[in-house]
Amino acid sequence: MEETKETIEKLKQADVLSWCRYNNLLLKDGVPFELSGMPYLMGLVNCDKRVVSVKKGSQVCITTSKFLETVHACYYRVYNQNIIYMLPTVRQAELLSKVSFDPIFNYNGWLRKKLSVNNASLKTINGRSIVFVGAQSQKVGDSTAKDSVNLRSIAADAVYRDEIDLMDEDMVELSKQRLNRSKFRIECNFGSPTVPGYGIDMLYEEGDRRRWMIRCSCGKYTSLAEEFPRSIIKTGGRWHRSCVHCHNEIFVKDGEWVAENPESRTASVWVDGLISPLADLEEYMIRYEKSDGRALSEFERSILGRAVIEASCQLSEKDVLSKCRLDGLRSFSDGTTCMGIDVGEKMHYVVGHRDSKNTFEILSMGTATDFGLIHDIARKMKVKMTVIDKGPDIFGVKEYQKNAGHRVFRCLYNEHSLLKPTYDTKTGLVKANRNEVCDMVHDTFINGMITIPRKSAETSEYAVQMTKTAKDTSPHPDTGIPRTRWIKVGNKQDHYFHATGYFLLAANRVSPTGGINRNRRLSYAINNYERTR
């Protein structure tokens, strides 16, 4: 087709990459935006689905293409309302605004003419605005509810979430509400993955799962990251991308996006750093071969775009089910017990006792939708103390606390305190560091002596939920210093994990029941023998 002035303008309006190319757009002084070596970008802009999630490695130009996408949308007035561009913190959002957005206005006069407002938090181009916000929340009063002034007042047609894994999950949800009055409702999530089943990795799995499949001269296809390290080999002293079928050299330009689950209503794309024109394959292979532990995990995240986690940071179903005894769930107890309750759509409870300093026995677990059932369970199990999630108070927690007939403490997590749990008998609150409670649950199953009832439908569900909370170590958005936090992964049903934490808080508050009796010792010994045969 002949490139007339009219057809070129149509191309520029329809496609941000064509707009950049035909206008010779400069990213900064003397640095043009180029597509050389990056054919994969053609399938990542102007996506055919309303929601797109991109998990990525380094040096693949995704962030650049996405912020240019927002400027292009304003330039041609694609939307009627604002575009929200989110980063984990306000500081990061304002820094991106200054470092990446400002130069394209400073060094492209034709674009600067359309700019009417230009500050760190707002760019207005041709009457349409990009609003930069940080995904930081503030608590509302004494409740567990979170809010953000920055997000609360903005109506938008599109939300771009950059490094979504590092964002406050409640703020991600709040940003979705900003699209309620939009006919477009565009959502774009992107960033490097952290742990499996969380953030961008979970969104990728839920989407159509597109991978850059490179066609070899033998007619077969290779996905570099999926087949790594077999997909990178050394021939004649040079590392190159290789077909895993015939071992011939393959080239990124011969690839195409292939969706594993094309029927999904959302788009999801895996852009690994091995397809980048800036990829130093020799350096990557040296780094890979010399790395282990945390360094290897970081390599997989930042270069391959794979979500990984060190095995010691997450319980497995085997870890949990290996603690099963021979006896089943109990509906009553001869001696006193403690209870932990996590509040969600239902209440998940865990009942048991502490036999010695580091020895615990869980007798029962289950769910309830009202405190009438909880009261009956507590009475039959002779519960002496309960620790329950402070909020949300949708089942009447405070009322139960008054009338339970035994000590009940509501747990308030303090993310920053390093002190041991503190119990206030006047307010009925126990304040505890969330990370330390999660550590306690994990360590009790890995290192301590704890048993649970024999395998059943409920203990199997318990074991699954115990795997849905994992420890992640990633740079703090503000300081860059590594920070450790426990996060929800997968389908996010981790209620039993936290109910177990509350149970341990309660059990550690009361005196041990005097050691495991002879029958329990025998049961535990027999069961342990059966597991190790």
Rg measurement, Å: 27 Å
Which strand-content bin applies to the residues?
A: 25-35%
Structure classification: alpha/beta
Name the average pLDDT.
87
Proportion of helical residues: 25-40%
User: CATH top level of the largest domain?
Assistant: Alpha Beta
From the 3D coordinates, which CATH architecture of the largest domain would you assign?
A: 2-Layer Sandwich
Domains (count): 2
Biggest β-sheet strands, sense, barrel: 11 strands, mixed
Q: How are the secondary structure elements laid out?
A:
Layout: H1 5-14, H2 16-22, E1 26-28, E2 31-32, E3 51-56, H3 62-75, E4 82-87, H4 90-106, H5 109-112, E5 115-119, E6 122-125, E7 128-134, E8 138-139, E9 146-147, H6 149-152, E10 156-162, H7 169-177, E11 186-191, H8 199-206, E12 210-215, E13 221-222, H9 224-227, E14 232-235, E15 238-241, E16 255-259, E17 267-271, H10 281-290, H11 293-304, H12 317-321, E18 337-343, E19 347-356, E20 359-368, H13 371-380, E21 383-389, H14 397-403, E22 407-413, E23 422-424, E24 429-432, H15 434-446, E25 449-451, H16 457-466, E26 469-475, E27 482-488, H17 495-507, H18 518-532
Parallel strand pairs: 3-11, 3-17, 4-7, 4-10, 10-11, 12-17, 18-21, 20-25, 21-22, 22-24
Antiparallel strand pairs: 1-2, 5-6, 6-7, 8-9, 12-13, 12-16, 14-15, 18-19, 19-20, 23-24, 26-27
Helix pairs in contact: 1-2, 2-3, 15-17
